[in-house]
Amino acid sequence: MGPEGVVGAHCSCPVGSGGYCKHVAALLLTWQAQPEQFVEQAELDELLERRTKAELIALIRQMLRHEPELEWLLETPLPATGKARGRVDPATYRRQAAALFENAEYEWGVEGEIAESLLAIKEIGDGFLAQQDSAGAAAVYGAILDPVLKNYDTFGDEDGDLSGVLIGCVTGLGQCLPDEALDPETRAAILRQLWEVYRFDVDTGGRSLGDDARDLLVDRTTPEERNTIAGWVREALPAGDSWSDNWHRQVYGGFLLDLAADTLDDETFLRICREMGRLLDLVDRLLSLGRMDEAVDAAAEASDYELIGLADLFVEHSHGEIGDRLMQERAEKSDDSRIPEWLKKRALARNDRPAALELARQLFRKMPSLQGYQEIREIAHSLDRWEALRPELMAHVQQSPHPELLIRIYLDEGEIDQALEAVKTQPRSWGGYYVQDIRLDVAKAAEATRPRAALEIYRHEAERRIAERGRDNYQTACSMLRKVRDLYARLGESDTWTAYIAALREQNRSLRALKEELAAAGL
Description:
Elements: H1 22-33, H2 44-49, H3 53-66, H4 91-102, H5 110-130, H6 134-155, H7 161-176, H8 184-203, H9 211-219, H10 223-236, H11 243-259, H12 266-276, H13 279-288, H14 292-300, H15 304-316, H16 320-331, H17 338-349, H18 353-366, H19 370-382, H20 386-399, H21 403-412, H22 416-425, E1 429-430, E2 433-434, H23 437-446, H24 451-468, H25 471-490, H26 494-507, H27 512-520
Antiparallel strand pairs: 1-2
């Protein structure tokens, strides 16, 4: 509160962010009615400073009676001013962090509870860091990271609570690194912990958990340290030839290149790229060196997916015609639709609309879609070829296993009668799913010019929803019934609507929830 009213508010309930909840409202009403019940409290530090040593001991005893699990803090080094302190042993913090996982029950939301307790331990490290005790802070952060990494996948962490703790500890370790007073042993331990975080992330598929650790290992290390880290990377390289092994080599290869970026000559760079499967980096450097034949040979060995990125490189290096040729050659022997898509975009970029049209037709034959139809129509109109092409496309759509697409095209072109007829003749389900959205889209499009057809669709869909039961279905049915009512009114058939809704109520008179929703909707 301030002189002019509420300054800010917050509540720990699920909707209490910003104070917009019933608990804050109740508190304000109580304050307004009984302000004498509210007593302003001094800051915590001030309250503790008022106590004598004996009182503080008694206070701690009382607290431990209520929270006995905090007893471990009595033997734990804590950041405090005015007292000499030796080297901080991380073992106590590590045991407590590990115990949080060991004693946790596997239930929904437990990760958040563990994370909250881990953050309480992390605050001790933050305290050491605030007092410029980087070694003490690093001991705490590292002690937390070890059990988090060991238990991360066991507990799931769907909401990212444990990830937040992990990244927070990595950030803390990064803040310790610039401290010139750090002894070599502590600094080496920090780098090793950061490496373990990055390695864990790579070995578990790459979830961006180790991105900050990777950046710190590259940006805040000496050449000698980067050489040591490169040795760790080489030890971690897999020897196999599986997809996973190749992926690991590519990721670690990129890390090696960054670690040695300031010292690698061109030939060493190219050798590492070849050894680690870093094809994009390889071709990019070859193009920069003007070694065109080698770049083309390397690109020719690429997978379809890799070739798309490589073709972009050729364009970036002002050799788009070579990228075009590589992609055209691959298109003749590949079914990957991304290749003609790339060629089509290139044709449009150089305003070769006939070529773009042919590629768009090829793509449409493979994967017919409304977007593809619209694109062909736009290009063909500019070439005055649409009237000749449309029958071909429509024939293909009518023979395709995508009945919804035909209706979408009719709606896109404003052919409401054809869309209504297509809805009648198409099955009410395909692919195991009931066709609802397209039927409602047709009804909405038909409201203006074919109101009776529209209301028949709305009626059927409303009745189907009611038959499926459930309050959500009833609410959806009511929204459709309102449309039916309005359409009957437009047709001057309000009496028909009255009879229809009365019959519907009678037919479903035992459905209490439906009657409530009908009343709420004014039906």
